[in-house]
Amino acid sequence: MTRGHRSERTASYERSQGADARVRFDARGVLDAFPLISAAECDAVVRDALACGPVLSWHKGLHEFDSACSRVARLPRLVEIVTGLLGEDVILWAAQNVSQQPGGQHRWHADAEAMAWPTVNVWIGLRNVGANSFLSILEGSHSSGVAPQDLDPAIDLLDDEQVVMAALGRRSGVERRDLEMEVGEALVFDGRLWHASRTPGSLRRSALLLQYSPASAVPKILAGTPTSPTWEERPPACLLVAGARSRVDAANVIIDRQRRVPGALMTSTRRVAARLGSARRRMGGA
Ligand SMILES: O=C(O)CCC(=O)C(=O)O
Q1: Which residue, 28, 91, 114, 207, is most buried by CB atoms nearer than 10 A?
Q2: Which residue, judged by its Cα, is nearest atom 3 of ligand 1?
Q3: In this predicted model, what pLDDT tens digit does every residue of 96-147 receive, in sequence order?
Q4: What are the domain boundaries of the chain?
Q5: Total-model pTM
Q6: Architecture of domain 6-255
Q7: What is the pLDDT of residues 202-219, one digit of tens each?
Q8: 79: three-class secondary structure by DSSP
Q9: What is the spatial distance between Cα 183 and Cα 56, in angstroms, rounded to a whole number?
Q10: How many CA atoms lie within 13 A of 27 on its CB side?
Q11: Nearest CA to ligand 1 atom 1
Q12: SS3 sequence, 179-224?
Protein backbone atom coordinates (compact mmCIF):
# COMPACT_ATOMS: atom_id res chain seq x y z
CA MET A 1 0.00 0.00 0.00
CA THR A 2 1.32 3.41 -0.85
CA ARG A 3 2.01 5.40 2.28
CA GLY A 4 0.98 9.03 2.33
CA HIS A 5 -0.14 11.92 4.44
CA ARG A 6 -3.10 11.21 6.76
CA SER A 7 -5.42 13.69 5.04
CA GLU A 8 -4.48 12.31 1.61
CA ARG A 9 -5.34 8.84 2.82
CA THR A 10 -8.70 10.03 4.14
CA ALA A 11 -9.44 11.75 0.84
CA SER A 12 -8.36 8.68 -1.12
CA TYR A 13 -10.63 6.49 1.04
CA GLU A 14 -13.56 8.83 0.54
CA ARG A 15 -13.00 9.05 -3.23
CA SER A 16 -12.77 5.28 -3.46
CA GLN A 17 -16.03 4.69 -1.58
CA GLY A 18 -18.87 7.08 -2.26
CA ALA A 19 -22.29 5.79 -3.10
CA ASP A 20 -21.03 2.53 -4.58
CA ALA A 21 -19.17 1.38 -1.43
CA ARG A 22 -21.45 -1.62 -1.08
CA VAL A 23 -20.95 -2.64 -4.71
CA ARG A 24 -17.18 -2.31 -4.40
CA PHE A 25 -17.19 -4.19 -1.10
CA ASP A 26 -19.19 -7.03 -2.61
CA ALA A 27 -16.71 -7.25 -5.50
CA ARG A 28 -13.44 -6.90 -3.55
CA GLY A 29 -14.39 -8.04 -0.04
CA VAL A 30 -12.60 -5.02 1.46
CA LEU A 31 -12.66 -1.21 1.63
CA ASP A 32 -9.55 0.95 1.47
CA ALA A 33 -7.91 1.51 4.88
CA PHE A 34 -8.63 4.93 6.37
CA PRO A 35 -7.58 6.95 9.46
CA LEU A 36 -10.17 6.44 12.22
CA ILE A 37 -8.69 7.18 15.66
CA SER A 38 -5.75 9.12 17.10
CA ALA A 39 -2.60 7.62 18.65
CA ALA A 40 -3.89 8.68 22.09
CA GLU A 41 -7.16 6.81 21.48
CA CYS A 42 -5.15 3.76 20.39
CA ASP A 43 -3.24 3.92 23.69
CA ALA A 44 -6.54 4.09 25.61
CA VAL A 45 -7.80 1.00 23.75
CA VAL A 46 -4.60 -0.93 24.58
CA ARG A 47 -4.77 0.19 28.22
CA ASP A 48 -8.41 -0.93 28.61
CA ALA A 49 -7.84 -4.16 26.69
CA LEU A 50 -4.94 -5.06 29.00
CA ALA A 51 -7.00 -4.22 32.10
CA CYS A 52 -9.91 -6.40 30.91
CA GLY A 53 -7.67 -9.27 29.72
CA PRO A 54 -7.64 -11.26 32.99
CA VAL A 55 -11.43 -11.11 33.44
CA LEU A 56 -12.69 -11.64 29.88
CA SER A 57 -15.57 -14.14 29.61
CA TRP A 58 -13.96 -15.35 26.36
CA HIS A 59 -11.02 -14.16 24.29
CA LYS A 60 -13.17 -11.99 22.00
CA GLY A 61 -15.33 -10.53 24.78
CA LEU A 62 -13.86 -7.01 25.10
CA HIS A 63 -17.13 -5.41 23.96
CA GLU A 64 -18.78 -6.59 27.21
CA PHE A 65 -16.94 -3.74 28.95
CA ASP A 66 -17.74 -0.04 28.98
CA SER A 67 -14.28 0.74 27.66
CA ALA A 68 -12.35 2.65 25.02
CA CYS A 69 -12.68 -0.51 22.87
CA SER A 70 -16.46 -0.45 22.73
CA ARG A 71 -16.47 3.34 22.35
CA VAL A 72 -14.42 2.88 19.17
CA ALA A 73 -16.78 0.14 17.99
CA ARG A 74 -19.70 2.56 18.36
CA LEU A 75 -18.10 5.55 16.61
CA PRO A 76 -20.80 7.00 14.33
CA ARG A 77 -18.42 6.92 11.36
CA LEU A 78 -17.83 3.20 11.80
CA VAL A 79 -21.48 2.42 12.51
CA GLU A 80 -22.44 4.25 9.32
CA ILE A 81 -20.05 2.08 7.34
CA VAL A 82 -21.13 -1.24 8.86
CA THR A 83 -24.84 -0.47 8.53
CA GLY A 84 -24.18 0.47 4.88
CA LEU A 85 -22.75 -3.03 4.41
CA LEU A 86 -24.92 -5.16 6.72
CA GLY A 87 -28.25 -3.34 6.93
CA GLU A 88 -29.84 -1.11 9.55
CA ASP A 89 -29.86 -3.61 12.46
CA VAL A 90 -26.31 -4.51 13.45
CA ILE A 91 -24.76 -6.32 16.41
CA LEU A 92 -21.16 -6.43 17.54
CA TRP A 93 -20.49 -9.95 18.80
CA ALA A 94 -16.70 -9.96 19.12
CA ALA A 95 -13.94 -7.53 20.06
CA GLN A 96 -10.37 -8.61 20.60
CA ASN A 97 -6.93 -7.13 21.12
CA VAL A 98 -4.81 -9.18 18.72
CA SER A 99 -1.22 -9.08 19.80
CA GLN A 100 1.60 -10.52 17.68
CA GLN A 101 5.13 -11.32 18.78
CA PRO A 102 8.13 -10.16 16.73
CA GLY A 103 8.74 -12.69 13.99
CA GLY A 104 5.20 -14.03 14.30
CA GLN A 105 3.07 -15.16 11.38
CA HIS A 106 -0.66 -15.81 11.24
CA ARG A 107 -1.27 -18.29 8.43
CA TRP A 108 -3.67 -17.61 5.55
CA HIS A 109 -7.24 -18.23 6.62
CA ALA A 110 -10.80 -16.99 6.39
CA ASP A 111 -12.72 -16.63 9.64
CA ALA A 112 -14.64 -19.85 10.39
CA GLU A 113 -17.44 -17.74 11.87
CA ALA A 114 -17.79 -15.66 8.71
CA MET A 115 -18.12 -18.84 6.66
CA ALA A 116 -21.14 -19.67 8.88
CA TRP A 117 -22.92 -16.26 9.07
CA PRO A 118 -22.36 -12.80 7.48
CA THR A 119 -19.59 -10.95 9.31
CA VAL A 120 -17.84 -7.66 8.67
CA ASN A 121 -14.43 -7.32 10.35
CA VAL A 122 -12.86 -4.02 11.32
CA TRP A 123 -9.14 -4.29 12.05
CA ILE A 124 -7.52 -1.22 13.61
CA GLY A 125 -3.75 -0.92 14.02
CA LEU A 126 -3.01 0.16 17.60
CA ARG A 127 0.75 -0.23 18.08
CA ASN A 128 3.78 -1.00 15.91
CA VAL A 129 1.97 -1.61 12.64
CA GLY A 130 3.32 -0.65 9.19
CA ALA A 131 6.47 -2.39 8.00
CA ASN A 132 6.91 -3.92 11.48
CA SER A 133 3.62 -5.84 11.24
CA PHE A 134 1.00 -5.98 8.51
CA LEU A 135 -2.02 -7.81 7.19
CA SER A 136 -1.98 -9.43 3.77
CA ILE A 137 -5.23 -10.00 1.92
CA LEU A 138 -6.38 -11.61 -1.30
CA GLU A 139 -8.87 -9.20 -2.81
CA GLY A 140 -11.87 -11.00 -4.27
CA SER A 141 -11.19 -14.28 -2.43
CA HIS A 142 -14.23 -13.84 -0.14
CA SER A 143 -16.47 -15.16 -2.91
CA SER A 144 -14.36 -18.24 -3.69
CA GLY A 145 -16.75 -20.38 -1.64
CA VAL A 146 -14.01 -21.93 0.49
CA ALA A 147 -11.64 -20.99 3.30
CA PRO A 148 -7.88 -21.64 2.85
CA GLN A 149 -7.83 -23.87 5.93
CA ASP A 150 -10.32 -26.18 4.19
CA LEU A 151 -8.16 -26.64 1.09
CA ASP A 152 -5.96 -29.65 0.37
CA PRO A 153 -3.76 -30.00 3.50
CA ALA A 154 -0.73 -30.30 1.20
CA ILE A 155 -0.99 -26.53 0.58
CA ASP A 156 1.32 -24.64 2.93
CA LEU A 157 -0.78 -21.83 4.40
CA LEU A 158 2.35 -19.86 5.30
CA ASP A 159 3.43 -19.80 1.66
CA ASP A 160 1.96 -16.79 -0.18
CA GLU A 161 2.55 -18.19 -3.65
CA GLN A 162 0.91 -21.55 -2.96
CA VAL A 163 -2.11 -19.80 -1.43
CA VAL A 164 -2.45 -17.30 -4.31
CA MET A 165 -2.27 -20.16 -6.84
CA ALA A 166 -4.97 -22.06 -4.91
CA ALA A 167 -7.21 -18.97 -4.85
CA LEU A 168 -6.70 -18.29 -8.55
CA GLY A 169 -7.72 -21.89 -9.25
CA ARG A 170 -11.11 -21.10 -7.69
CA ARG A 171 -11.72 -17.52 -8.71
CA SER A 172 -10.04 -15.47 -11.39
CA GLY A 173 -8.76 -11.99 -10.69
CA VAL A 174 -7.89 -12.37 -7.00
CA GLU A 175 -5.08 -10.03 -6.08
CA ARG A 176 -2.69 -10.12 -3.12
CA ARG A 177 -2.05 -6.92 -1.20
CA ASP A 178 0.24 -6.34 1.78
CA LEU A 179 -1.26 -3.53 3.86
CA GLU A 180 1.31 -1.48 5.72
CA MET A 181 -1.15 0.58 7.73
CA GLU A 182 -0.53 3.41 10.15
CA VAL A 183 -1.47 3.52 13.83
CA GLY A 184 -5.18 4.42 14.13
CA GLU A 185 -6.10 3.32 10.60
CA ALA A 186 -9.01 0.93 10.10
CA LEU A 187 -9.48 -1.81 7.53
CA VAL A 188 -13.03 -3.00 6.89
CA PHE A 189 -13.29 -6.44 5.30
CA ASP A 190 -15.57 -9.41 4.81
CA GLY A 191 -14.54 -12.12 7.31
CA ARG A 192 -14.55 -14.65 4.43
CA LEU A 193 -11.71 -12.75 2.76
CA TRP A 194 -8.50 -14.80 2.74
CA HIS A 195 -6.07 -12.98 5.02
CA ALA A 196 -2.84 -13.50 6.91
CA SER A 197 -0.49 -11.42 9.03
CA ARG A 198 3.24 -11.12 9.42
CA THR A 199 5.36 -9.33 12.03
CA PRO A 200 8.86 -9.20 10.54
CA GLY A 201 9.96 -6.32 12.79
CA SER A 202 11.37 -6.44 16.28
CA LEU A 203 8.37 -4.94 18.12
CA ARG A 204 5.27 -6.59 19.56
CA ARG A 205 2.20 -5.43 17.64
CA SER A 206 -1.37 -4.76 18.84
CA ALA A 207 -4.53 -4.43 16.77
CA LEU A 208 -8.21 -4.20 17.66
CA LEU A 209 -10.41 -6.67 15.80
CA LEU A 210 -14.15 -5.89 15.84
CA GLN A 211 -16.69 -8.29 14.32
CA TYR A 212 -20.16 -7.12 13.34
CA SER A 213 -23.15 -9.03 11.92
CA PRO A 214 -26.75 -8.36 11.00
CA ALA A 215 -28.97 -8.62 14.10
CA SER A 216 -30.87 -11.41 12.34
CA ALA A 217 -27.75 -13.63 12.43
CA VAL A 218 -27.06 -15.84 15.44
CA PRO A 219 -23.33 -15.67 16.26
CA LYS A 220 -21.62 -18.44 18.20
CA ILE A 221 -18.36 -18.90 20.05
CA LEU A 222 -15.91 -21.02 18.09
CA ALA A 223 -14.77 -23.93 20.27
CA GLY A 224 -12.27 -25.34 17.81
CA THR A 225 -11.68 -26.51 14.28
CA PRO A 226 -10.48 -30.12 14.60
CA THR A 227 -11.74 -30.99 11.10
CA SER A 228 -14.74 -28.71 10.83
CA PRO A 229 -15.72 -25.95 13.28
CA THR A 230 -17.31 -26.84 16.60
CA TRP A 231 -19.21 -24.28 18.65
CA GLU A 232 -19.71 -23.63 22.35
CA GLU A 233 -23.20 -24.04 23.86
CA ARG A 234 -23.20 -20.57 25.47
CA PRO A 235 -23.91 -17.69 23.09
CA PRO A 236 -21.63 -14.64 22.93
CA ALA A 237 -23.16 -11.53 24.52
CA CYS A 238 -23.71 -8.92 21.78
CA LEU A 239 -23.90 -5.14 21.64
CA LEU A 240 -26.70 -3.70 19.54
CA VAL A 241 -24.80 -0.94 17.71
CA ALA A 242 -27.59 0.12 15.34
CA GLY A 243 -31.26 -0.53 14.75
CA ALA A 244 -34.16 -1.93 16.71
CA ARG A 245 -34.03 -4.44 19.54
CA SER A 246 -37.31 -5.91 18.29
CA ARG A 247 -35.56 -7.06 15.13
CA VAL A 248 -32.72 -8.90 16.92
CA ASP A 249 -32.99 -12.69 16.61
CA ALA A 250 -34.53 -14.03 19.84
CA ALA A 251 -31.61 -16.44 20.31
CA ASN A 252 -29.14 -13.58 20.77
CA VAL A 253 -28.16 -12.22 24.18
CA ILE A 254 -28.01 -8.43 24.03
CA ILE A 255 -25.88 -6.59 26.59
CA ASP A 256 -28.06 -4.16 28.58
CA ARG A 257 -25.41 -2.99 30.98
CA GLN A 258 -21.74 -3.23 30.15
CA ARG A 259 -19.18 -4.42 32.68
CA ARG A 260 -16.73 -1.94 34.18
CA VAL A 261 -13.10 -2.02 33.19
CA PRO A 262 -11.32 -3.44 36.31
CA GLY A 263 -9.01 -0.42 36.73
CA ALA A 264 -11.96 1.96 36.39
CA LEU A 265 -13.77 0.02 39.12
CA MET A 266 -10.80 0.42 41.47
CA THR A 267 -10.63 4.11 40.68
CA SER A 268 -14.29 4.69 41.41
CA THR A 269 -14.10 2.50 44.54
CA ARG A 270 -11.17 4.61 45.71
CA ARG A 271 -13.17 7.75 44.92
CA VAL A 272 -16.12 6.51 47.03
CA ALA A 273 -13.75 5.50 49.86
CA ALA A 274 -12.13 8.93 49.75
CA ARG A 275 -15.55 10.62 49.84
CA LEU A 276 -16.64 8.48 52.79
CA GLY A 277 -13.34 9.26 54.54
CA SER A 278 -13.75 13.01 54.15
CA ALA A 279 -17.44 12.83 55.23
CA ARG A 280 -16.34 10.96 58.37
CA ARG A 281 -13.65 13.53 59.03
CA ARG A 282 -16.19 16.38 58.66
CA MET A 283 -18.41 14.61 61.19
CA GLY A 284 -15.46 14.44 63.58
CA GLY A 285 -14.72 10.74 63.09
CA ALA A 286 -11.31 9.11 62.65
O1 LIG B 1 -4.03 -9.47 13.56
C2 LIG B 1 -3.62 -10.53 13.11
O3 LIG B 1 -2.47 -10.90 13.25
C4 LIG B 1 -4.55 -11.43 12.35
C5 LIG B 1 -5.87 -11.49 13.00
C6 LIG B 1 -6.78 -12.43 12.30
O7 LIG B 1 -6.72 -12.58 11.13
C8 LIG B 1 -7.76 -13.18 13.06
O9 LIG B 1 -7.74 -13.11 14.31
O10 LIG B 1 -8.57 -13.87 12.42
Answers
A1: 91
A2: 197
A3: 999 999 999 999 999 999 999 999 999 999 999 999 999 999 999 999 999 9
A4: 6-255, 260-286
A5: 0.90
A6: Sandwich (2.60)
A7: 999 999 999 999 999 999
A8: helix
A9: 25
A10: 8
A11: 98
A12: ECCCCCEEEEEECCCCEEEECCCCCCEEEEEEEEEECCCCCCCEEE
